[in-house]
Recover the amino acids of this structure.
């Protein structure tokens, strides 16, 4: 598609439409003014009372000489000579008297007189030019004697040159206003468009830089608090978040590389050691094989965690749901941590109800959540600390499993981000930073919730809320 700037598109559409509208308005205003002036002239010439003319002319009798005497008397006593010119025309169509005192040529064109003769009203109006070139508006009234015979006509004329001159002045004024208004609209619209297009160009520039990996690109020169300003702020926030995500991703890659290297180094070291000693030292061989198996298991768990994270990110994490007892799964996990807690000198207090907590879920995924939460509690609790695991049913349809430790806790500024992918509040402890993100997704898929509260320096509490089915009936059966 061919590129066309907003300014050019505006001139091709809006500016052209505005021009058409302004031209139409200008013509309309001019037409209204012209009609007003011409209407005033028409009212002036048509204001002559034909009844008054008949009464004046009838005083001189029904004769040619009487008509001529009446014409002279009428013209001499005409009160509006400063506005109108008057011609008196006899029955033969000849102008016998004029208000300007000059004789009128017999070949002068008088369309209004000809039309008046054929008009039922005996009157007619015409606008045109005299042989001298002067533009006039003429109005002719015919006169008939009392016996009905045609006596002649009175022709009133008003000059239109002054009116046309005034209209030309109005036309110039309207054109000037049109040009000024159109110029103002073009200039103001151009300035307004530039206030939009210039920031849009900067936004495009910043977007290209962000797409190229420069997450420090910011738009900080837009002065208005409007939609574009909001867009600039959104792009700035997006750049900051992408930059933070990029940093967390790099930290994640570095952490995972280190976490993978540690068991691989142990496996390789003990493999080389066992290769060298052969069967000469059974005790060392047994201990080396235990470490290799332990580190391989740890390595496998890390790979599975990464695969789970990949499935979660792509929306491909699936559940193999079946009817399970959440507390039974919790019992197995807590029991598996007993030996580790003794080895690390951490006390685990376990207190859960004796009745079952049935529901639909994926047992492997539920265990994964319990293991991750307990593993974090163990990692962040020093020797001599305590971990409390409890469960309660705040309602028949809900189970709450609470894991509380006396570890280092989470800083207030880290707590809102602790379930985000790649985020690690404490980089001194091993871990990839994606375990809680995966657990939170698993809880959401089960219709549950994972909540975390923490006091920095005192410990952390994790609450796992699961939906139950028929919990009340099961409890009654056990009673």
């Amino acid at each position: 598609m061919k590129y066309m700037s907003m300014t050019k598109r505006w001139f091709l559409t809006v500016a052209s439409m505005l021009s058409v509208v302004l031209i139409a308005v200008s013509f309309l205003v001019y037409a209204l003014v012209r009609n007003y002036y011409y209407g005033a002239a028409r009212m002036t010439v048509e204001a002559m009372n034909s009844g008054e003319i008949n009464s004046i002319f009838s005083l001189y009798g029904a004769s040619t000489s009487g008509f001529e005497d009446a014409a002279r008397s009428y013209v001499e006593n005409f009160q509006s000579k400063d506005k109108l010119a008057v011609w008196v025309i006899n029955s033969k169509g000849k102008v016998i008297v004029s208000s300007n005192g000059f004789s009128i040529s017999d070949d002068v064109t008088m369309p209004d007189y000809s039309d008046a003769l054929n008009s039922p009203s005996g009157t007619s109006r015409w606008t045109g030019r005299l042989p001298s070139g002067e533009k006039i508006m003429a109005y002719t009234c015919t006169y008939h004697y009392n016996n009905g015979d045609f006596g002649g006509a009175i022709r009133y004329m008003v000059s239109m040159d002054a009116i046309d001159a005034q209209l030309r002045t109005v036309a110039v004024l309207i054109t000037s206003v049109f040009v000024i208004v159109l110029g103002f609209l073009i200039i103001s619209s151009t300035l307004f468009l530039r206030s939009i297009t210039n920031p849009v160009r900067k936004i495009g520039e910043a977007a290209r830089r962000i797409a190229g990996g420069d997450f420090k690109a910011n738009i900080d020169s837009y002065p208005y608090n409007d939609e574009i300003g909001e867009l600039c702020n959104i792009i700035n926030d997006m750049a900051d978040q992408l930059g933070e995500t990029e940093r967390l991703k790099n930290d994640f890659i570095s952490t995972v590389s280190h976490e993978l290297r540690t068991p691989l180094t142990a496996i390789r070291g003990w493999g080389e050691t066992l290769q060298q000693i052969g069967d000469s030292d059974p005790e060392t061989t047994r201990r080396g094989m235990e470490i290799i198996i332990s580190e391989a298991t740890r390595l496998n768990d890390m790979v599975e965690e990464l695969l789970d994270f990949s499935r979660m990110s792509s929306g491909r994490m699936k559940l193999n749901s079946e009817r399970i007892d959440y507390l039974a799964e919790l019992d197995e996990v807590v029991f598996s941590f007993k030996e580790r807690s003794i080895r690390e000198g951490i006390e685990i207090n376990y207190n859960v109800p004796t009745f079952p907590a049935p529901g639909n879920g994926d047992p492997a995924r539920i265990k994964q959540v319990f293991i991750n939460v307990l593993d974090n509690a163990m990692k962040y609790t020093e020797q001599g600390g305590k971990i409390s695991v409890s469960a309660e049913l705040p309602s028949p349809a809900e189970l709450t499993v609470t894991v509380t430790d006396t570890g280092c806790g989470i800083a207030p500024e880290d707590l809102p981000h602790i379930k985000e992918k790649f985020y690690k509040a404490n980089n001194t402890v091993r871990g990839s930073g994606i375990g809680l993100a995966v657990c939170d997704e698993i809880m959401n898929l089960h219709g549950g919730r994972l909540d975390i509260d923490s006091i920095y320096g005192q410990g952390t509490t994790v609450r796992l809320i699961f939906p139950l089915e028929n919990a009340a009936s099961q409890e009654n059966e056990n009673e």
